[in-house]
Amino acid sequence: IVLTQSPDTLSLSPGERATLSCRASQTITNNYLAWYQQKPGQAPRLLIYGASRRTTGFPDRFSGSGSGTDFTLTISRLESEDFAVYYCQNYGMSSHTFGQGTKVEI
Amino acid sequence: QVQLQESGPRLVKPSGTLSLTCAVSGASITSGHLWTWVRQPPGKGLEWIGEVSHSGGAIFKPSLSSRVTLSVDTSKNHFSLRLISVTAADTAVYYCARAGAFCDGDCHFPIDFWGRGTLVTVSS
């Protein structure tokens, strides 16, 4: 499964809404889709799994949605600490590919 | 708190073998989780390499499968990556990680804990 994220870069201001897309080349079963946040010099952090289940440590301004081949990560109101690179990943039975990433920049 | 720490040579010669070990603390490697390797070339995105269970069953990225071996040492609570015939394209930060079991009706295995990563350079 190939994951294609769009856009590559999202330039926004604090307080604005960010909408990130992740499109799969084949149907992702059981919503085996995760989102990670990565800041420079740091390991990624798990943000969303099961397409929409947010992990503890991330506030509710982050939300995930979608199913099948189209998935979305939404940040309702950007705060300064949210500017980072976001990756989607399929962790199905035999395919664990990452998307190429979307950079959310100021 | 689960912690993972990569160790191994930081410089490998072309055509040589890259070997890394990941020490796990705060969790037993024999738990129901999966143990994963991900790499990231400088300035680029994440690439999943493969994952292994405590029993040794493993799956790999197809394009790397002929060169990769993953193993687990339950007595030392660590797991290892071996990548043969390396080239400059294998230069990357290598992360070991845990694909944790999130079960609530169904089970999901996203990567929930990561090591800090170690930069391995392939160069003569």
What would you say about this model in short?
The complex is a heterodimer of chains A (106) and B (124). With 106 residues, chain A is mostly beta strands.
What does this protein look like?
- In chain A, strand 5 (45-49) and strand 6 form a beta hairpin.
- The N and C termini of chain A lie far apart (31 Å).
- Chain A is mainly β and 106 residues long.
- Helices cover 0% and strands 52% of the residues of chain A.
- In chain A, strands 2-9-8-4-5-6 form a six-stranded mixed β-sheet, with no helix packed on it.
- Chain B is mostly beta strands.
- Chain B contains no helices and 13 strands.
- Chain B has strands spanning 3-7, 11-12, 18-25, 34-40, 47-52, 58-60, 68-73, 78-83, 92-99, 102-104, 106-108, 111-114, 118-122.
- In chain B, strands 2, 4, 5, 6, 9, 12 and 13 form a seven-stranded mixed β-sheet that branches.
- The chains are: A mainly beta (106), B mainly beta (124).
Unreliable residue runs of chain A = none
Main sheet record of chain A: 6 strands, mixed
Trace the largest sheet of chain A across and list its strands.
2-9-8-4-5-6
Helix content range of the residues of chain A, please? under 10%
Shape of chain B: globular
* Average residue-wise pLDDT of chain A: 95
- For this structure, the quaternary state is heterodimer
Shape of chain A: globular
Q: Summarize the largest interface: chains and residue counts.
A: A-B, 23 and 23 residues
* End-to-end distance of chain A: 31 Å
Give the strand tally of chain B. 13
Count of DSSP H/I helices of chain B: 0
Into which percent range does the helicity of residues of chain B fall? under 10%
The helix-and-strand class of chain B reads mainly beta
Which features characterize this protein?
heterodimer; A: 106 residues; mainly beta; six-stranded mixed beta sheet; B: 124 residues; seven-stranded mixed beta sheet; four-stranded antiparallel beta sheet; 53% strand
